[in-house]
From TrEMBL:
Residues 1-19 form the signal peptide. GO terms for cellular component: cell outer membrane. PROSITE patterns: FN3 (PS50853). Residues 281-374, 378-471, 563-652 form the Fibronectin type-III domain. InterPro entries: FN3_dom (IPR003961), FN3_sf (IPR036116), Ig-like_fold (IPR013783), Pectin_lyas_fold (IPR012334), Pectin_lyase_fold/virulence (IPR011050), Pectinesterase_cat (IPR000070). GO terms for biological process: cell wall modification. CDD domains: FN3. This is Fibronectin type-III domain-containing protein. Belongs to the pectinesterase family. Keywords: Aspartyl esterase, Hydrolase, Signal. The lineage of its organism: Bacteria, Bacillati, Bacillota, Bacilli, Bacillales. GO terms for molecular function: pectinesterase activity. It comes from Paenibacillus mucilaginosus 3016.
Amino acid sequence: MKKMWHIALSALVAGASFSGTGIHGLTASAAGEELTVPPGNTAFINDSFNGVTDPPVTSTSTVKTFAGYTASVTGPNGSVSIAASGKDGVPFPSEALLIRDEDGSNASGTVGSGAGATSVTKGLGSRISDGIVTVEQDMYFYGPNNDISRGRNVLKLTGGVNSQANTSDTIIQVDLKGGKIAWTDTGGIYTNITPANLTNAAWYHLKAVINLNTFKADYYVTNLSDGSVVGELREQPFYNRTLGSQAGDTAAITAFGASTGGTTAENIVLDNIQVYKLNAPPDAPSGLTGIGGDRQIALSWSPAPNAVTYDVLRGESASGPFVKVAEGLTRAAASSDPFRDGGLINGQTYYYVVRAVNPFGATDSAPCAITPSGERPAPVPPQNINVEARESAVMLKWDAVPDAATYTLKRAISPEGPFAVVSSVIPNTQTSYYDTGLDAAATYYYTLSSTNIAGTGDESQLLTANPSVPLTEPADLRAVPGSKRVDLSWTGSPGAAVYQVKRSTGSGGPYTVIGSTYGTSYRDTGAVDGQTYYYVVSAENVSARSMNTLQVRAVPYTAPKGAPAAPTGTVTEAAYGQIVLHWDAVRDASEYTIKRASSYNGPYTTIASTKRTSFKDTKVTNGSTYYYMITAKNRYGAGPASEPLIATPSRVIVVAKDGTGDFTTVQAAIDSVPQNRQERTVIYIKKGIYKEKVIAPVDKPNLSFVGESRSGVVITYDMNVTYHPGLQTATFELRGAGSTIENMTIQNSAFPNKDTNGVKGVGQALALYVSGDRMVFRELNLYGFQDTLYVEKGRQYFSSLYIEGTVDYIYGNGFAYFDRSEMKHVGTFGGYTTAASHDQTAVNGYVFYQAKKTRGTTSLKPYIQQYGKAGTYTGAWDDTWDLELQGVSKSNSTVYLGRPWRPYGNVKFVDTWMDAHFYAAGWHNWGKVENETTAVYGEYGSTGPGANAQARVPWSKQMTTEEANALTVQRVLGGQDGWDPTLTGVFAKPPAALGD
């Protein structure tokens, strides 16, 4: 926006220097006044767009320039022009450049066919090949239905890479992707600058500081409504990540650009575009500090903005003169790897200055006085050391030692030693170490010490760890409530010595230990009648523990003597305008009381009594979820209540291939639902094969797709990236929040996945794409090859999922919990199970709980054999893809558990059985070593031939029992609204599909 927007904030920061920071130069100017760049810089682009009178450029315009920019418009509904307000009608503070594109198709189908793009470019009038180049611009985005999830290249600098002749190589590129601002590289890998999504129809400021000497860029994004920094990334590589890895690499910037061509945000608005190059000396180095040792000193300092190299100077007084002792240092010295100056005289004070240098001059730091001494003591050992034993690994954490430069970790397999050095160069900025590749059957002993210029200090006390395999958790936990008590029983764990009993008043924990026992039963006598409790049990022995069991629920109740037991065998059914409950007869019961609530935890109100073992509730509102409890009574009184029963009556649309329903296609049923209806609607699908591409858009939330049969209802299509480039290939696109799918098969039959016997492979071909919050998937089959399931965003719960694929067949940025599901690798070649793309804010991304990882021939084989045909997207079956016929071993170790599609990919496997087709290393960094410091990959209690904690890559983690126990459905997906997807209950069916 015009600088006048920043008057209020500028008062807070007046006089401050913002070189190398994320805050824009906030100086006020009147509308139309010439913009100014920061002092000491030369401007190449400096555009405010006030008073521009050029006619708009459209696809049919003869003149292709606008306000000094070359415009390209290829779609009939695109243009480049001046805008004074947003598409929502809210005026801008002043005129701005509108890059309009309303030809990109999106989920709601509101903007055209998907053809066309709009772009602007402007040359810098110079070829900049060294120094510091800064780009600043204000940005505003608008998308239909508040959707700016993707589709915009907001900044691109082009020029030449390693050639003076090149003019169109990309130097840096920043996009609007997934609702966030992100930079991208040549492999199409995005790294988020803003951790959270931007807001539709709001102004933001982007600043990019590009160092052509180091091939690194710093990025900052500011919200212009309040001046807050909403995203910051420093020291990021250029678009071509390998720049700088070879001697003689060069990069030159010649032009600025921005473009559309995506499928959601319809407009980019840009204002106050500035491209300028530093032509002044660097800032002074700060944070200069040092320590003296025996006839030597060690110096460290913070990087100086705009510095290219550093010189170190020494004098014998604070005013000099100073003599260079080093020059041309290419980086600032860290305390863990300091600059050392030797040959000094102990007891004499020396004064040091660090000089920052660039092509425009040099700037000195303030002097730092240091006195070398042979009497300086070595640092004390680290204190408060915490040792966490994990399977085949140990995590050590400690408090920082103020004057330590590095830490040394030693390890032995007996307390007497010998001790071997694990690492002697742990920097002082690191106060933890993950020691992996250990023998789970051994006990390990550790010591830690600190080192600085005076030497290495004493070693810490002896530390002990047992990186043993976790025990198997107890099974079949049962809870029987009584009068002010709950009786618990379970099946024991092999090797267990004692069991810990834990309780919580909230579903999913956290749980508190209330007692321990050597047996397999426990009576909780501290329970209160009427209070709902959730119990878990874990096992322990002297060296190992198990994770918690699945929780059980119990409500203590003091029943009159002779009262009947709680009803069991409950069945719940729902239809339009009714809910039907069934239960088994209870011995000695004379009647039953039905209570109902509008929430799981009540309060429950009596709505009926009956002598029968069923009840039909017709006093319900369609779309509302109801909770029931049933109590048996006799002449002595009422017994305890049943477990809560959950159901949602609703409208039901029937889809039947044979014409016996409301519609013959799933898409027609979706189209019949009004936009933005918040009431739940069930689309009940009868048995049949439905060959169609299904799209449930974002403006149709709370749809529930219920199949008559998991294997008998098949939704299939065959779109793929090879023959449909640039389009969403998913057979089923589910975008509306609160939607569910259950009891059916969804597949993408595009075949073959890779080039096979002269037939071109189809590549990426999704079965299911999900992009909405609070989604539930139960008893679902997903068949495909590459990229079978795309969890694009939101929270999703998958229960009893069966999914097949070859490469990256579970991927995306969503938060997904896979509860007791099976993942089957069906490729005859290697691949990756997951390709997560979370950002740095994700505590948990994908969690697989008690999953099963298998390998075998694709379940699509019978379908392809029957319906596949050469020359179509579902090609003719080729026996090359039959693992059994080809003799492909199911245990040939060619598959990875995952690779990070984005740097912060987050995947955890808990209590998962793995076949032997996985590499022992487990995880892949996708060819980028830097991903190893950002990706979050964890396992706990993996079993089967593919489990190998000792051989896993050291940048993945074996989780502790506490970490695994925290990964309950409720705690992973609960969010701020406390969502519990396990309480979804049953959805309505047509009356003809109900039981007796």
